[in-house]
Each structure stands twice: as structure tokens, then as C-alpha cells.
Design goal:
single chain, alpha/beta, 8-stranded mixed beta sheet, 9 helices, about 35% helix
Length: about 300
């Protein structure tokens, strides 16, 4: 595993990234787009598993996360209200690794908020990847435009890099209510939930700016009139835990599958894992998830 830094072509922000290469001849490049309020190191075990199977893996901390901040006090702040910034960062990272391995196909694995980044990415760049996994994907949210308006109204009256607890409550306040007291909606695996809570690079809240970006991505990911489908045969796999509150319901999860088909993608597959929650890669059953994802990449 090697870590490195690049400068975002979007606005010059320093982005921290990591890459692992297999011992033998590589089969493909797998880029990873991580979720909200987490960081690249949480995917190193998964990357090592994929590297052992022959894949070059790359991940970067999204802006406002991990090492892609000017200061740890900036967690949850994106340095722009243009949500295309985080999308272009992903494109730049993928293009950089592709330049090193020009003959290898590129696959993209994304989780949670990272699936919104990935969906906005394929609106413009679907011809540059050959397979896509959307893990724990947010489904259509009826109140997202209200949230965006609320964020814009609050913006002039709050410190720009201060966590917005009201928007956090509006966005995620209902999630814990779906589970017994003391259990985490994040994961059925209590050890993972406790480790997440103890990690200062995870245990933070988005700023108003972060929520504005999040809402814009959520809206953009469900607008298909400007979707430039260049790769209609792109295989897309959607996976989630059946108890994941981020997908809201099995019905909305299936509607997301149909939305992607209606947008123009012919090969859309999906799987729900009974009893599991949001962070599939960190459940105790994670090896089953690892193998299913690998099987999809190797089809």
C-alpha cells in the first residue's frame, strides 16, 4: 500500500490517496469512492483482498474527509458549493491511475454518499469505466429539495466550517429509531459501530456547505434528462443490507434499479442481504460481500 497526494484540478485542494498493486500481472483497476464521514483507510482490508486476486486498487479521501482537508477542523467542509468538484476529483484520480496502466479496464466500487458521487460521475464519464458497484446507495428522497433550501437559507447565518447539527438531525435523526435502543443503524456488527464512533476521522458532522453539496448530488443523481449515456452495456450491481435505513425501503431500492434501467443501462443487477445494515463491508459476514463483489468484477 502506498499513499500519495495530488492537487485537485478543480480548485487546487490537496487530495490524499492510496494505491495497492498486485504481486503478479494485474487484471484491472478498481477505484473506490468511499462514503460520508469516513476515510480511505477503512477500505485497506478490502483493497488487499482485491489485490491478492490480481487487481490494482486506488482510493482517495473525498474533499472534506480524511487527509483531503486543509485542517482537521475542516471535516465535513467541501471548499465549494459546486458539487461537481467532488465528482471531478474522482475523475482525476481514475485518469491518473489509468495513465499508469493504459491497457487495463477500470471498475468502480462506491459506498453510500460515494454512490452519489459515482452516479454523477457516470452521467458524464460512463464510457471510461467497465463495471460499477453501488453499495448502500441512497434512494430517492422526497424531502431533499427542502433540505437544500434550508441549507442555503442557513448558510449566511452560520460559521462556514461549523458542524450543522440541525441539518444532521433532519437528515439522519430517524435512522436510530428503526433499531433497538443501543444498537447502531450503521452496522449490525457492534465492534464496527464502536470503532467508527471512536475514530476522529469518522465521528464528525457535515457543515452547512457539506449538506448543500450532498443535497445537490442527491438531486443530480435522479435527474436523467441531462444524462449522457455513452456506455449502455455498463454492468451495474446494486447491493445493500435489507435493514439499511439509507435505502429507506426495499420498494425504493427496486425503484432505483428501475431508474437506472430507464436511464438507458441494460445490465443492472441487484442483491439485498437479509438482516444486514448499512456498512456491508464491515459486517461480520463481510467475506461473503467481498466474494460477491469479486465475482461480479470477474464475470
Amino acid at each position: 500500500m502506498k499513499c500519495f497526494e495530488i492537487k485537485s484540478e478543480f480548485d487546487g485542494l490537496k487530495l490524499e490517496a492510496a494505491m495497492i498493486e498486485p504481486a503478479g500481472e494485474p487484471k484491472a483497476i478498481i477505484a473506490i469512492s468511499h462514503g460520508m464521514c469516513e476515510h480511505k483507510e477503512r477500505y485497506f482490508d478490502f483493497m488487499e483482498f482485491l489485490a491478492e486476486a490480481g487487481y490494482v486498487c486506488v482510493i482517495h479521501d473525498h474533499r472534506g474527509h480524511g487527509g483531503s482537508v486543509e485542517s482537521p477542523e475542516d471535516y465535513g467542509y467541501f471548499y465549494t458549493e459546486d458539487h461537481h468538484g467532488i465528482v471531478e476529483d474522482l475523475h482525476q484520480v481514475i485518469a491518473g491511475v489509468k495513465a499508469e496502466y493504459p491497457d487495463l479496464p477500470v471498475y468502480l466500487f462506491s459506498h453510500s454518499m460515494g454512490t452519489l458521487v459515482a452516479r454523477c460521475y457516470i452521467k458524464k464519464y460512463d464510457s471510461e469505466i467497465e463495471k460499477l458497484v453501488l453499495c448502500g446507495p441512497p434512494t430517492r428522497l422526497a424531502t431533499v429539495r427542502f433540505g437544500l433550501v434550508a441549507g442555503k437559507l442557513m448558510n449566511p447565518f452560520v460559521k462556514k466550517k461549523k458542524a450543522n447539527l440541525l441539518l444532521t438531525l433532519m437528515a439522519f435523526g430517524s435512522y436510530p429509531k428503526k433499531f433497538p435502543e443501543g444498537e447502531s443503524w450503521l452496522s449490525k456488527n457492534q465492534e464496527n459501530a464502536e470503532a467508527y464512533g471512536a475514530d476522529p476521522m469518522c465521528n464528525f458532522f457535515f457543515t452547512t456547505n457539506g449538506y448543500i453539496n450532498l443535497a445537490k448530488m442527491q438531486i443530480d443523481a435522479f435527474v436523467n434528462k441531462d444524462w449522457n449515456v455513452q456506455n449502455p452495456s455498463l454492468p451495474i450491481l446494486l447491493i445493500a443490507g435489507s435493514e439499511d435505513p439509507v435505502i429507506q425501503s426495499k420498494k425504493l431500492f427496486r425503484e432505483l434499479v428501475e431508474f437506472l434501467k430507464e436511464t438507458g443501462y441494460k445490465n443492472v443487477y441487484h442483491k439485498l442481504y437479509t438482516g444486514l445494515r448499512h456498512e456491508l463491508l464491515n459486517e461480520k459476514e463481510n467475506m461473503m460481500i467481498y466474494k460477491d463483489v469479486l465475482r461480479f468484477f470477474e464475470k
